[in-house]
Each structure stands twice: as C-alpha cells, then as structure tokens.
C-alpha cells in the first residue's frame, strides 16, 4: 500500500447542467467542496480536458474531467503525465453503487467494480494502483436500471446522507493530505452511527 501524499485529486462526473445534480456526479461534488475548503477556483484547461485548480499551499492539483464519464482517463492521464504525477499519488473520487448512501470507502488499487470512469482511468494510467474514495449512492436493485439510476438525482433523504458523508470526507482531508492513509481509511470506512430512535411520548403526563 502506498504512503505517498496525493498530488492530484480527481472528481469523476459528467459535464453539463443536466447532470449537475445526478448521482453519477458525486465525485464532482467532493472536488467542488474541497476547492472551497482550500480556497482555490477551477478554470478550464483544454490541454487537460477539464476544470483544473492548483492548491499550491496544499501541494495538490484538483481536476474535474469534462470528457464524460467513460473517457475520464483522457483528462487524468494528460495532467498526470504533464506534471509527472505517479499513479500512487492520485486520488480518484467517484460514486459507488455497492455502498449505501451515507457511507464511504477509501482504498488503494483493486478491482474497478464495473465503473466506466475507473476503467478508462486505469487504461490511461496502465495500472489499477491508485487511491479511490468511493461515495455510496446505493443500488436500484436491478442491474438493468443502473444507467437510469445513476443519471437521476438522489431522493431527498438519500441526498442528505450523501451530503453528510461528503462532510466527513472533507473533515478527513488533513489526514489524506499528509499521506496518513491508514488513519484516514480507518476513519472514513467506519459506518456512521445509526440515528437514535425518538423517545415515545409519555401519554400519562399532561
């Protein structure tokens, strides 16, 4: 497992206003919030096929590919090659069907879970050995409904859970930025505590 601090954080998603609020854009949501946290703004860089921000103080680039999901690797590969960023120094943030809304998984390498953005990224980097932050969006229950599901907005209660998970991910950013991956993994992969049930009213009291 790599212990290198990240030099590139990539949020995966689809460009265009019609996709902004869809589940498949969870990676974009994280990157936008991280940019706010780091006090940097994105600008379009055609040579990197996406929106790019340079957080100099943190020593990290942020990237939101504008190539559509299944060609994400074109943008990742272009920026990584130009700045000589190794795959182990890259964190890809993406939506994950196999994790419920409100949960996260941080991992290094491994399988791609059928995610087209990861498939193209691995093809351009010629390896699966990079970090991923998986943002749970839940599964529709029928694989034939997956495409329709990821390209729609989450239900209100699901979106609230996803937003809470993004807040937890941002809170763990200082650990990630220092390359303290084990500590960040332990924190982020823990399941959030279930909300306590409301106490029943005491009908005997006036």
TrEMBL record:
Record-linked SUPFAM superfamilies: Peptidyl-tRNA hydrolase-like (SSF53178)
InterPro entries xrefs: Pept_tRNA_hydro, Pept_tRNA_hydro_CS, Pept_tRNA_hydro_sf
Statement: the UniProt record of this protein carries the keyword rRNA processing: no
Site feature: Discriminates between blocked and unblocked aminoacyl-tRNA: 14
Region of interest (Disordered), residue spans: 187-206
Site (Stabilizes the basic form of H active site to accept a proton): 95
UniProt-listed Pfam families: Pept_tRNA_hydro
Full protein name: Peptidyl-tRNA hydrolase
UniProt organism field: Aromatoleum anaerobium
